[in-house]
Amino acid sequence: MNTAPVARRPLPAMLLAAVIGLFFGYIVLEVLNAGIIAIWETIPGNWTSTPAWYLFGILLVSAVLVFVIRKFVGDAGHSPIGGIKVSSVTPKEYLGVILAIFASLWGGIVLGPEVALVATGSLIGGLVAKWMHLIDAKDQKKVVGFGALGALLALFVGPILSGSLKLGSTPAAIEVDQLGWAIVVAIIVAVIITIARVVAALIERATGSAPNLPILLAAAVIVGISALIVQSRTGEGILFIVTSGEDFITRLSTLTSASTVLAIIIFKAIAYAVSLGCGFRGGPFFPAMFVGAAVGLLISLALGDSGPSVPAAVIVGVIASLIATAPMKWPIVIILGVVLGLLMGTWTLVPAALIGAVVARLIPRWGDRVIENPKVTAH
């Protein structure tokens, strides 16, 4: 009697992993966002400005928790400099990964939720592949990938349903005479994001990839100082600096002071770099999007009527920052340009988004040699 295992088609498992991944990814995202809102909006809402003791207290507790989790619970996650990496994780590994991400993001560290969703979907995919008795390693990898993709789609469910990504007062027609500014915005954004990532890689190279409590604490202090400077000098809230900031892009676009926006760019980029390179856990894309949006806004404000509209400049900054953060193939670049143009504005902003995407993709990735240096070992 033949008792050899029977090969099964992976498609049903892939679809099941994607659906379940989307469900649990959405739950994880909602819990993450609820904690961030409670810690950084609801409680500070009791004060006219967030006191330093509260700001530094939360950030320092976050640093200690991340160290303890990575040191004693599990350190299966990878450095946020590495972007998004899809690989199967066990429940035990997932516990360390997700706890470190929650501790980082709830603590106000300038990283995004995307890696938490990918880890959740990867766990779901691995469990589904095991439950469906898939024996081929390639099929198992496909199921894990679809689980991660499904969970990642949770990022778009809320914004699509609520329209929270939409920028106000989008132009009724394509601003043909101003499309050239998209090139300038994309170049500046790509340079700023690359500098932040290179600084982060140099920090990690100098301090090592193992959890280091003094380095984590120092990074928390730098993030706190950056937030306090912006709050005291501009009168704007610390939420323009702490946390990933993607939910504040629409609020950012309402600012009218170029000096305020410049201060936000400088100190957000500093906070982003140390968050990337000092051992915290989370995703690199959403904070980069915020910085890109701020750069676009600054150029629009500085040029006035002779420059691009605020929505067009912001969208170009967002798409350029995404492409500067991770290498992408041309089809993905084009799709992102179209999708973000439509999600954040209307069809009239798609040409500007596409120009920003193409220009950012064409800029040589001169920072990758430093970021991907083999001496930097990522966990």
Summary tags:
379 residues; mainly alpha; Clc chloride channel; 2 domains; 67% helix; 0% strand
Give your account of this protein's structure:
This protein has 379 residues and is an all-alpha fold. The chain has two domains: 148 residues, no CATH class; 210 residues, Clc chloride channel (Orthogonal Bundle). Helices cover 67% and strands 0% of the residues. Helix 7 crosses helix 14. The longest helix has 32 residues. The chain is globular. The chain starts with 10 loop residues before the first helix and ends in an 8-residue tail after the last helix.
Task: Summarize the helices and strands and which ones pair or pack.
Blueprint: H1 11-42, H2 52-73, H3 91-106, H4 114-131, H5 137-152, H6 154-162, H7 180-207, H8 213-234, H9 249-252, H10 258-277, H11 285-303, H12 310-325, H13 330-344, H14 350-362, H15 368-371
Q: Biggest β-sheet: count, sense, barrel?
A: none
Output the helix-strand order.
HHHHHHHHHHHHHHH
**Helix segment count?**
15
Q: Roughly how much helix do the residues carry, as a percent range?
A: 55-70%
Tell me how many strands there are: 0
Mean pLDDT: 91
Short description:
The chain is mostly helical and 379 residues long. Helix content is 67%, strand content 0%.
